[in-house]
Amino acid sequence: MDLERVLKGSPWTFNSHLMLVHHLGEGKDPLKVLLIFTNF
């Protein structure tokens, strides 16, 4: 429930900076996730 709220409630900010989040599936490599865009 919390995960859904976070992912659907974006965009989020921290200290006035945009914070991008991505749900990592099992076995996914976090170094290969491109955090380059978000929906507004």
Identify the notable features of this structure and list them briefly.
about 40 residues; alpha+beta; two-stranded antiparallel ribbon
What does this protein look like?
There is one protein chain. With 40 residues, this protein is an alpha+beta fold. Helix content is 18%, strand content 15%. A hairpin with a 2-residue loop joins strand 1 (12-14) and strand 2 (17-19). The chain is built from 1 helix and 2 strands; from the N terminus they run H-E-E.
How would you summarize what this structure contains?
This protein is 18% helix and 15% strand. It is of the alpha+beta class and 40 residues long.
Describe how the helices and strands are arranged:
Blueprint: H1 2-8, E1 12-14, E2 17-19
Antiparallel strand pairs: 1-2
